[in-house]
């Protein structure tokens, strides 16, 4: 399912890294699937996995030459998020700049996210 709006956007660095991951995969990959799951000390964590294609109900984002599928259970948590890829002296990782994130744990592995209010979302697009 394609939205009238993008749930999430990508920086050039994130798009380049996703392209490299897909090119290095050991099988044909249609894109990357992004979601959230319960867990960690702050309550939730972001998930990413190879995607062979869209699952029923997923939003499909085409941005900067890559395809990202959004788990339908994650849409209200990810709305407005920008996905980046950052490299520092100690780590290389995807970073989610999420306006719905209210806090993160000290280790950086989990976050607290408040979902967008569905009524406010409907009003914004009415």
UniProtKB/TrEMBL annotation:
Alphabetized NCBIfam families for the sequence: iron-sulfur cluster assembly accessory protein
Which GO CC annotations does the UniProt entry carry?
Answer: cytosol
Q: Which family does it belong to?
A: Belongs to the HesB/IscA family.
GO MF assignments: 2 iron, 2 sulfur cluster binding
Q: Which Gene3D superfamilies match?
A: HesB-like domain
Q: Report the domain of life of the source organism.
A: Bacteria
InterPro entries, from UniProt? ATAP, ATAP_core_dom, Fe-S_cluster_asmbl/transfer, HesB-like_dom_sf
Please list the GO biological process terms of this entry: iron-sulfur cluster assembly
Signal peptide start and end residues: none
* A Pfam family this chain is assigned to: Fe-S_biosyn
Q: Where is the Core domain?
A: 9-109
Protein name per Swiss-Prot or TrEMBL: Iron-sulfur cluster assembly accessory protein
């Amino acid at each position: 399912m394609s939205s009238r709006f993008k749930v999430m956007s990508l920086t050039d660095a994130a798009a380049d890294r996703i392209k490299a991951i897909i090119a290095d995969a050991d099988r044909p990959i249609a894109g990357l699937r992004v979601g959230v799951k319960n867990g960690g000390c702050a309550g939730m964590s972001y998930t990413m996995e190879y995607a062979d294609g869209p699952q029923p109900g997923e939003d499909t984002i085409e941005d900067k030459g890559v395809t990202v599928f959004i788990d339908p259970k994650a849409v209200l948590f990810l709305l407005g998020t920008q996905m980046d890829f950052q490299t520092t002296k100690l780590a290389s990782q995807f970073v989610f700049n999420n306006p719905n994130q209210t806090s993160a744990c000290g280790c950086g592995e989990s976050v607290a996210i408040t979902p967008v209010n569905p009524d406010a979302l409907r009003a914004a697009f009415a």
